[in-house]
Design brief:
The complex is a heterodimer of chains A (240) and B (104).
Chain A: H1 15-45, H2 50-59, H3 63-70, E1 76-78, H4 79-90, H5 92-104, H6 109-116, H7 121-132, H8 138-163, H9 177-188, H10 193-212, H11 218-232
Helix pairs in contact in A: 1-2, 1-3, 1-8, 2-8, 3-4, 3-9, 5-7, 7-8, 10-11
Chain B: E1 2-4, H1 9-32, H2 39-63, H3 66-82, H4 85-101
Helix pairs in contact in B: 3-4
């Protein structure tokens, strides 16, 4: 916490604030490292090369999307399904950017888009908390993001080393790492009747598409069905 | 259109994933600098974020073996009770392992 009497402008970002943000995120980043290890392990089970797995974590840095696309890896990887799946899973970043805009707009464009490169769920949440308390939040967005990113990559690397030792993970349930991870992400989200119905519609649309439409269309079909229902079905006023 | 997952194919795949993800990180800020994102659009995005994961999981649960279903059910229950993802994922994997080791 900077010990100044005059409050800093909330869009303030400097080396000190970034370092404070980095340290603030380390306890959470340790867990992210374990998720990274789980991803490395799951990706090895899907037959990906360790070098590509670590490159993916380094350049993409989006856990749920990386897990979600493991399903598509085979001798041939369908490009359109891959891009649409990544977009749908990561579309929540659009909302993060939009909610951060009131503070980001004070920065020059290079910095504005620079800090967004490492925007992720945990550092976005901490940044919004800081803004809510009237404190500068962009330091924790960048510093926290760098912490999450480095621990994610390190965890992935560790996971590929462990995964190398297990030739067939299926008897040990390791083929379920991806499914259990994604389900845990779903359950940790907003839970109410409206969301439950949206998920049921998404699941139904996915299964219909899985059986009757071309291969790999089920993810996009379910995402669109759920999204359209969410758009037309207004939330109750008390939830706002 | 598909790409081989051998040779340099994965480079293209990782590049596409990275570019699409970066577009989502930048897109919200970029659009907001012209026009505010409306309520309906944000409701669509919020509903889609969970739905895409559910859509991915549905066939996994329907077509999977007993071990797969037990793993997902265990993860869901532990997650609802403890609200912590790591124990929930670990419990799910262990459930599948036990189920398959017993050869049910």
């Amino acid at each position: 916490m900077p010990a100044t009497d005059t409050p800093l402008p909330q869009h303030q970002i400097d080396r000190h604030l970034v370092w404070v943000g980095f340290r603030q995120m380390v306890p959470i980043a340790v867990f992210v490292m374990m998720f990274g290890a789980a991803f490395g392990l799951a990706a090895m089970q899907s037959g990906l090369d360790p070098a590509w797995i670590v490159s993916m974590s380094t350049l993409v840095f989006a856990g749920a999307a990386q897990f979600a696309t493991l399903d598509l890896w085979g001798p041939q990887v369908p490009i359109l399904a891959l891009a649409l799946t990544v977009f749908a899973v990561n579309a929540r970043h659009l909302l993060m950017g939009a909610t951060l805009y009131p503070w980001l707009r004070h920065l020059p464009p290079a910095q504005r888009y620079g800090v967004m490169v490492v925007a992720s769920d945990a550092n976005w949440a901490l940044a919004m908390q800081a803004f809510g308390r009237g404190q500068p939040g962009l330091g924790v967005l960048l510093g926290g993001g760098l912490a999450l990113w480095s621990f994610w990559v390190l965890g992935t690397l560790l996971g590929t080393q462990v995964g190398d030792l297990i030739a067939d993970g299926r008897p040990w349930g390791l083929d379920m790492v991806m499914g259990c991870f994604l389900l845990a992400m779903v359950v940790s989200g907003q839970k109410n009747l409206r969301m439950l119905v949206i998920w049921l519609v998404a699941a139904g649309a996915s299964l219909v598409a899985y059986r009757h439409l071309p291969e790999n269309s089920h993810v996009v079909a379910g995402a669109l069905a759920g999204g359209l229902l969410g758009m037309t079905w207004k939330e109750q006023p008390h939830e706002r | 259109m598909s790409v081989e997952s051998q040779g340099w194919g994965p480079l293209l795949i990782v590049a596409i994933m990275a570019v699409v993800t970066l577009a989502t990180r930048w897109g919200g800020v970029f659009v907001m600098s012209f026009v505010p994102i409306g309520h309906r659009v944000s409701q669509f995005i919020a509903a889609m974020s969970g739905s895409v994961l559910v859509a991915l999981l549905a066939p996994l649960a329907m077509e999977g073996d007993g071990g797969a279903r037990l793993a997902l059910a265990t993860t869901a229950v532990v997650m609802l009770v403890l609200r912590k993802p790591l124990p929930a994922i670990a419990a799910g994997i262990m459930a599948a392992a036990v189920f398959r080791q017993l050869g049910v």
